[in-house]
Amino acid sequence: MASSTARAQDSSSNFASGPGTYLFLAAGVGLPLLRDGSEGKNHFFRTADSGLSAVLLAEGLKRLTRVPRPDTGERDSFPSEHATAAFAVATMESDFHPREAPLWYAGATVISLSRLWEGRHRPLDVLGGAALGFATARLELSRNRGLLLTPWIDGRSAGMMLTAQF
């Protein structure tokens, strides 16, 4: 019985750490286009911007801190990018759809915990990633324009522009 329970947890954490993460992020970024009406494009770009900004910040922190992973010793453990991206998306979607906040945060928590269950991170890596994702999304929501992605319209064409402000 114990081995079947362990296999089920392994299977669940493998899914949450892999395909489940991608499905969660795709849903968080893509669903606004399908259900948020006239705000759909704005919510799509703002969520994508928050996630991208948070992951870029996490990558920078990984290169600065060089904390070894518990399973491989590779020096890229802090912060967990899975937790960072999941909490950035969960925070954005929770702001756009407050009644769904428990579901979005539960999904982000399961993804984050899966990184511990898989032995890829330590608790501090996951907590740091979750805090970074949450904080980046809150910063995104406090601004009129995106952190990295800005709409661009010149009369003949329109698109998104990648920007950086210091």
From TrEMBL:
Transmembrane stretches, start-end: none
Signal peptide: none
Domain Phosphatidic acid phosphatase type 2/haloperoxidase residues, every copy: 50-141
Stored SMART domains: acidPPc (SM00014)
InterPro entries: PAP2/HPO, PAP2/HPO_sf
Pfam families: PAP2
Superkingdom classification of source: Bacteria
PANTHER family per record: AT30094P, SPHINGOSINE-1-PHOSPHATE PHOSPHOHYDROLASE
Protein name: Membrane-associated phospholipid phosphatase
Source organism phylogeny: Bacteria, Bacillati, Armatimonadota, Fimbriimonadia, Fimbriimonadales
